[in-house]
Amino acid sequence: MWETEERDFTRWLTENIDLLASELGIEIEDARAEEAVGDFSADIVARKTTTGETVVIENQYNRTDHDHLGKLLTYSSGKNAGFTMWLAEEFRPEHRSVLERLNEPGPKGARFFAIRPRVVSVEGSEERGFAFEVVVEPNEWERAVRREASDSVDGVRPPRRFTRPPVRRRGRGPAVAGLRTRTVRDTSRRGLTRRSSRVPGGVASAPASGRSPRARRRSRRECVRRHPASARATPTGTSGSSRAVR
């Protein structure tokens, strides 16, 4: 289907990198063929869309060998790749073991794949299709892909914010911003001077409407104790009570 690896298959895969990405459950973009790595050239270097991690791909026809394994590790290290993929028709058990060992848990954070590209027949048609068979993948890779897909929307997960609504405490001064309150006008003993409504320095304190009924009753009792003559005023009105009411 592809006569040569370098001129045909690598070029085709670069233009159709989304097919490989779909098989792995991730998104890959910006694929470039024959990317320089020091004095060498990697077959394909790309980037994972959601994280920006570098993806290195080494292609090989026939059975895997030490030469391509060395190239794979060289390109992966030179590009500090988060994803390293080796595509070949057949993988030797020794080379599969190397990739499995590299995928063991550790602080390196690199992921290695062995992938076998296959040409398949399309049922009911003379045309042939193409498929990827994942031979080696990182430990818990399927679970990680499912978790990433469920946790994100279009690759971005918006932060969740927890807010607590403002609470108004009874008898603690004016209402808290953000809540509706009802103003209650106190019309009892309108002629009396309410000393409790002022603070030292002559600055008015919070209005009585912001107080609880219990606090208003306590304030009225204080006024009665401080102005006994006014509290005993009769409807007939004595001279002393008239002066107090004014």
Question: Could you name the ranges where pLDDT drops below 50 across 5 or more consecutive residues?
Answer: 153-208, 236-246
Largest sheet: 6 strands, mixed
Rg over CA atoms: 40 Å
Give the ordered list of helices and strands: HHEEEHEHEEHEEHHH
DSSP, total strands:
8
Biggest sheet: strand arrangement: 1-2-3-4-5-6
CATH-derived topology of the largest domain: Trna Endonuclease, Chain: A, domain 1
Q: Rough shape? A: elongated
Q: Strand-residue fraction?
A: 15-25%
Helix run count:
8
Distance between the termini: 109 Å
Helix content: 25-40%
Topology:
Blueprint: H1 5-15, H2 17-24, E1 28-37, E2 40-48, E3 54-63, H3 66-78, E4 83-90, H4 93-102, E5 111-121, E6 128-136, H5 141-151, E7 198-199, E8 203-204, H6 213-226, H7 228-231, H8 239-245
Parallel strand pairs: 3-4, 4-5
Antiparallel strand pairs: 1-2, 2-3, 5-6, 7-8
Question: What's this, in brief?
Answer:
With 246 residues, the protein is an alpha/beta fold. The chain has helices spanning 5-15, 17-24, 66-78, 93-102, 141-151, 213-226, 228-231, 239-245, and strands at residues 28-37, 40-48, 54-63, 83-90, 111-121, 128-136, 198-199, 203-204. The protein is 32% helix and 25% strand.
